[in-house]
Amino acid sequence: MKRLTIPAKLSRLTQPSSASHIWKPANCPTRIGTYNSSITNCVTGQTSKVPPVRRATPAGVNSTVADANFTRSETSVNATSVSTTCAGKVVNKRIPPYDFKARYNHLLERHKALKEKFEEKCEQVGKLETLPEQFKEVQSHLASTTEELKNTKTEKEYLQRQVKSQQQNIELLTDSLTSITGEFEKLKRAYKKLQREHDELSIEVPKVREQSADLVDKNFKLMESIAICKEQLFRSNVERKELHNAVMDSHGNIRIFCRVRPPLDFERHKLLCGWNYVDESTLEIFNCDPLIKAKNKGHSFSFDQVFHQSSKQEDIFQLVAPLIQSALDGYNVCVFAYGQTGSGKTFTMDGTIGNPGVILRTIDLLFDSIKAYRNLGWQYQIKVQFLEIYNEVLYDLLDNEPKELEIRMTRSEKNGIYISNITQETVENADRLRQLMRIAKMNRATAATAGNERSSRSHAITNIELIGSHAEKHCTSIGSINLVDLAGSESLKTSMRLNETKNINRSLSELTNVILALLQKQDHIPYRNSKLTHLLMPSLGGHSKTLLFINVAPFQDCFNESLKSLRFAASVNQCKIAKARRVRILNTSNFQ
Ligand SMILES: Nc1ncnc2c1ncn2[C@@H]1O[C@H](COP(=O)(O)OP(=O)(O)OP(=O)(O)O)[C@@H](O)[C@H]1O
User: What is d(CA 102, CA 253) in angstroms, rounded to the nearest whole number?
Assistant: First the structure.
């Protein structure tokens, strides 16, 4: 049989319940033959004197056993003491040693009792044997419970985080709810206000409706009167044009302005001619050469206007502006600047930055007038081209590419001219036109660098075409402006570049010839003798208004050239070109 090792804790359970009973473990040595007067405690190792103890037998056996381990030798000499209970009192009865039967019975009883006890203990031990298994079970249960606890903790943390974020959400939602509620309240107030206004307006509506009907009626009447006014305005405008033209005609269709430029700062030391400005249209020039002073007498010239040295650009343009107005009314206008090199032609036509000349001021005036004309029902289209005539060759100043430009006649119009291959641009505003002018100037300057002072040896022409249309009246008005900065006139004697000078002088004298032929009303006008006169044919004939600036330098060393220019201008001044008439109004109106 397997021997059980019983732990100290459990061993106490297996001891007899009576303190007087001596339990002896298997490994504890037994002193046989002693009457248990002394017992060695196997647990503590102490030895104590224990007197014989009277004990109750298990299962109600009423006998007293001195010791379960007494020996045969003892039984043979000693009587056995047995305790019995009689009427609630313990009675010790001694079994005499010779009463074997009684002693046998007594032993049988004791054996039975011990056996029962032994079985009971075995049962207890059996139960104890299952403890490790139970322990294992409990351990595994504990492990699974720990795992569960861990999972539960993780879940708890996750749920706590969820709770926290939900709480934040709730806070945000609460905030937005608060602001929405505020907005809602505001809207409610606004709505109420609007409703009040609406109620008030609802009361007003019938009155306003009534007033509106009145106004519609009045408006209708006003529209009628506006139509009448418009008609009158249109007629007045036509009349104004006629009158304007009459005034211009009264000045002559070719006008000559003379401008004497001031000496510049670095020219102060130079000897000046004598200048006498008799009135606003007459000037006298005196030769101040000290060698011929004695016989000097003044040369007097009269023109439409004389501008002295301190005249301003704006004073000059004031008198040019009516001509520009005529171009918008459908006339061909030509403005020339004629004079010796350095006499101020470019200054008069182009001007400088901050002191614009005729061309830039014309651009501004045109676009301002077009705006005003729009109110009268006129729409204008403006087309521009810039060209240069150098040594009788035409150059496109808006395109640097070398190409051949030719003057051609239009089929539709008598004396109508156009240039093949030239760049013509339709401009929408003054800025773009100014920009194109800058490009043209730049291209001219570039060519000048390459062509040895070409800019002052060439004619520069700015051509602006003005096409007006009146949709209501089915009228079209086509006018044009040619602004010409002529090449400087120069004496062949003083010229360094003979060929250029010959060409310039030839084209300038052809210009004089054309003007004189016109003056003499010759049948044949030699327009085609030079590129310049050919090109300007429509602007020089009887159907145009021409303005000639004669620019002169104030210096004594320019006296001869100045006199020449002034004489040329004086001869032109006498030219009575046939009364200018507006030829290019193409319309179906009764008012023309
Ligand atoms: N009325 C004026 N007031 C002030 N400066 C002027 C005036 N006229 C001309 N000038 C100046 O005189 C100089 C010569 O003028 P400009 O270049 O206009 O002469 P030009 O006749 O065009 O010469 P070119 O035939 O060589 O081109 C320039 O510096 C110009 O600014």
Answer: 183
